[in-house]
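Hi,

Apologies if this is the wrong queue. I'm a grad student, and the batch job for Phosphopantetheine adenylyltransferase from Actinoplanes campanulatus produced an output file that my downstream script rejects. I'm not sure whether the problem is my script or the file. Here is the sequence I used:
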Amino acid sequence: MRRAVCPGSFDPVTNGHLDIIGRASRLFDEVIIGVLINQSKTGLFTIDERIEMLGEATAQYSNVRVASFHGLLVDFCRDQGAAVVVKGLRAVSDFDYELQMAQMNIGLSGVETLFMPTNPLYSFLSSSLVKDVVKWGGDASSYLPDNVLARLVGRLKQN
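Support response: The file is valid. Your script probably expects a header line. Output copied below for reference.
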């Protein structure tokens, strides 16, 4: 079985993330969305909330599942039986950082990295950016799944 991991913090998941996940789902038998638990950062959404939103947003893909992890990505890949990491690249600046990570991952464990260029519609998009847009009352509806937008608006109204 060809299995891949799409890792990230997904705080929150955007349509840019979903574009990469959907494209990966056509290339691999199974795609595992790996939600990173970073204990040194406090996210807007809890890990459980992110997993729930991702599950709802990817329900149309029968070969996609969501799991959380902490520690090294290569250890998560080994535990999941995945030999490939799929990463989206928005710009050249992403490539510089991601190439170093990919080289470290293959050196540590032989896990390959597949870089996918982001759809130009989402090349500027980040979770941080959409949080700022929504925080200041902007319309982020074309950048987030409906379920995520509703939760984001609700969360930011609380803060």
